[in-house]
Amino acid sequence: MFYEKLNRLKEKIIEQGNLVESMIEKSIRGLLNKDKALLLEVLQVDEPRTNEMEIEIDELCINLIARFQPEARDLRTIIMILKMNNDLERIGDMAVNISESALYLIERPQVKPMIDLPKMAEETIQMLKDGIDSFIKSDAKLAKSVCERDDIVDAYRDQILRELITYMISDPTTIERAIHIERISRNLERIADLATNIGEDVVYIVEGKIIKHGRYKESTGSA
Amino acid sequence: MIDIVLRAENLTASYDDHIVVKNVNLSIVRNSITAVMGPSGCGKTTLIRCFNRMHELSPKAKVEGKVYLIENLNGRREEIDIYSVDPMIVRRKIGMVFQKPNPFPTMSIYENVIAGYILNGIKLKKSEADELVEETLRKVSLWDEVKDRLKKKGTFLSGGQQQRLCIARALAMKPDIILLDEPTSALDPVATAKIEELLEQLKNTVTIVIVTHNVGQAGRISDFVAFMYLGELLEYGPTDTVFTRPLNEKTEEFLAGKIG
Q: Are the Cβ atoms of A66 and B244 closer than 8 angstroms?
């Protein structure tokens, strides 16, 4: 009874993870291919669906705790799913932000060739994909590797910002477009942060260890 | 549309002049598990005893109001006022399992399963009886454990097995509803888990109403929950809702362990 319901909950959170992952992927593909229909799909179809799923998953978690009083790993799993659910819905909102800026950008001339942004998006999507995979496989090692990769995405954001500042200084007419590109990069960076949270949550489920706020680096001795 | 199997209207039950169930209105959903919970003495057992006319067997007991059993016969819906028909027919359609396992001590396991037929004078062919005993014992996951000793007395079984035998005895009559009064309170946790699992499986074929003072059990197994307090039905609804957002303050206090 309980495990059937818990498995259903796990399936739901994985479905939500896959949905928001596809939202980021579509928002970037829509930007690069100037595909307006794809961007509108994120806004009009996917986002309302993630909102509905968030409420559904919240209720499943609350009902399971209220009715079965789970302990130990089962309790950790449900509480972490509750947190992941919140993070995944936020990721969905960020994919919406990216799509909105992309809709602005695809109607206008390019400020510069898109080189780092697609790489940054690829790295971010892979982090989220691995975060969800680590949950599916209960793989703490993979989950930790997600947390380690956050710095790579941060570096992309800094690099993109530096470059955009140069463009904006040399040609102020690019400022509005540059701000939208920066907005996309900032949202990707936030998504990577939330993917890191998911990695940390999975480590807590599997090992019962809290590795957030630098505790992972302390425990492994890495800088 | 919600498929209702039993409906109580303004049901009041008393012993002597003492009212124990006060003006209850309740509809039980077919093929679901409904848990009736509440503190000791709140009237939950009396309520379900009114559902198969057991209450009136107690001295000076009185029942007012109506209880309807709703049957679907070949797609036709028929409402039976259970207080206007033979109580024996009612008890065949609405079986009862008690707190303490009570297999008939003089009967074998085999006879216990078909006791309802024997006691009602309903003749079964040997082949029919054999088939019914095996099918019913399989339903309660007891067949493999007892198939080689069907002629032994039911009282030789463990407590959990005896209770499953009692459930089989009720099921063998092919009832619409089974009422269970604290069926696991005399059992250990392993036997309790087995019964809970069994009830979950059985609800596909029969409607289950279970009285329990154990909040955990109500949460684990029920689809709907009724909360009784001082003879009144204070709250009734889907278990998910009642357990997370109860409307009545007393329900909240009971779930939180502050009363009960």
A: yes
What phi and psi, each to the nearest 5 degrees, are found at residue A119?
Answer: -65, -40
Using CB atoms, which residue from B220, B240, B244 is nearest to A1?
Answer: B220
Give the closest residue to A184 by CA, choosing from A86, A110, A90, A105. A105
What pLDDT does residue B213 have? Answer: 87
Q: What six digits make up the tokens of A184?
A: 């996309």
Question: How far away is chain B from the Cα of A128, in angstroms, using its nearest Cα?
Answer: 32
Q: What is the pLDDT of residue A1?
A: 82
**Predicted local distance difference test score (pLDDT) of residue B75:** 82
- Contacts for B84 with CB less than 8 Å, ≥ 6 apart: none
User: At residue B8, what is the residue type?
Assistant: A
Interface A–B counts its CB contacts (< 8 A) at: 25
φ, ψ (nearest 5 deg) of residue B237: 180, -175
Does CATH place domain A2-220 in 1.20.1250.20?
Answer: no
Q: Where are the domains of chain A?
A: 2-220
Please name the residue that has the structure tokens 């939330």. Answer: A194
Residues of chain B with pLDDT under 70: none
- SS3 assignment, position B90: helix
Quote the pTM value.
0.86
CATH architecture, domain B4-255:
3-Layer(aba) Sandwich (3.40)
Which portions of chain A are predicted below pLDDT 70?
216-223
Helices A175-207 and A2-32 pack at an angle, to 10 degrees, of 160
- ipTM of the assembly? 0.80
The answer to whether the CB atoms of B240 and A63 lie below 8 A apart is: yes
Decide: helix, strand or coil at residue B73.
strand
Q: What is the pLDDT of residue A212?
A: 86
| Lookup: tokens for A80 | 């972490």
The two structure tokens encoding residue B97: 């399992």
